[in-house]
Each structure stands twice: as C-alpha cells, then as structure tokens.
Amino acid sequence: MRRQGRITLAIDGAVARLVIDNPQKRNALDLAMIAELSAAVRRVARDRRVRVLVLSGAGGKAFSAGADLDVLTAGKDFGRRLRRIEQALDGAARRLARLPIPTVAALSGFCMGGGVQIALACDLRLAAGDLAIGIPAVRMGLVYPRTALGKLVRLVGASRAKFMLLSARTFDAKGAADMGLVDAVFPARRFKPMVDDFAKAIVAHPPGAVRAYKQVVDALATDNAAAAERIARRVNRGAEMYAALERVRSGRKRRVR
Length: 257
Hints:
Distance between the termini: 68 Å
Number of strands: 10
Number of helices: 11
Strand content: 15-25%
Helix content: 40-55%
C-alpha cells in the first residue's frame, strides 16, 4: 500500500512543477516527504533546461498545513521529534532559497506553519483568492525557526511579524497582500492557469538576465552592493543583451522599409 503523502516533480520544457501531495492531511509534511522535497530541489538545480520552479499543493484545497502533527506527537519524545522536523524543513527551505532560478509558491487554500516556511523560501508568493495563511506556533509553545523568522521580518517588518506571530491569526489573501506576505492575488477559479501564464512569461525572458535579477536583488537585500554591481555589469556586457538589442534594431529597419 502506498504511503499517504509524497512529493511529485514534473518538468515541462523550462518549467518545473513541484507538488506537495498529501491532500488527506491538507498536504502536511512528514520527514519522508521533506526528504523527497529536498531531493527534488536538487534534481531541479542540476537540470539546466529549467528556468523557473512552481511549488504548489495537490487538490487545490491547501498548499500545506506544515509539519504533520501526527508525526510530532506519535511519542512523548517531543523535543527530539521537533528538532528532526525543524532541521529537515530548514534544510529544504535553504535548498529552495539557493536555487539560481526564480521560484514561485502558488498558495491556494490552507497554508500554515511549516507550509509558510517553505513558501517564504521561494522568491515569489502568488495567492489564490481563497488563501488562509498563518503561523499558529505560539499556541503550542513553539518558536518559529530563525531563518524563516528573518525572511518574515524582512518581508512584512518587525511590527507586523510580531502581530502575526503573537496573535496566531489566520489571514485571508487580501490581508496577506496588504502586509506584503504575498506578491499578487488571483481569482481562485482561474488560479492555476494564471500561475502557469506567469511562469511562462518569466521563461520568455532572456535566461541570463532573469537569473541575474534574482542574484542582484538578493545581494542588495543583504547590503552587498558591490556584488550586485558586478553581476549587473557582467550581464549588461553579455551576448544576450547584444542579441536582444540587435533584434530591436533589425525590427526597426524592417518597419522603416
């Protein structure tokens, strides 16, 4: 009998799609699934064809409810179990964040706790109108992982991060967008095709420039202006830019004729 949850990876041309597939538990993640997620991210990193990664939850009702609480509470050794899950989630999130290509979290339905941690590791978060997102860790006496907290604070600011964490509230898509937690909100009934169109639009751009923008912004976010300048200068002297401008020049010549 197949175990309940798994991670699926499909590569369609330049778009990689990772799916958290455990809909019976709102796509909650156990240790085996987190290991699968890390392995899938490594496969994407090795595939030079891939230009963008989209991460979503199966079934359309949830992105992920986070760590599987049945695993955490299966025995009384809560501390050891919690450390194992935290370390596994932190490792998967770090691998996602280090991918050289843009990563998009497609958030529909329920997204809680560790699911938010995975979403925060992505470059962009697109929300369906039915999104319900929150970090209820304080209710269980837990402190969220430091790396994820750092990304949350950078995105929404210290005061809003405290409000989110201390209230343990669940926010809808508009509330998440208002605080800067998600980047765009799409209608739930058209969410998947709109996310697909967004990914295809990224793929249509010159890949070197796309990768460079990710690196430049990440460098600026850590106050590394020198690295950002080096990356931008390298791309702006590269063959991609010259080829694109040559196409523009040739197009203008044809219109003049």
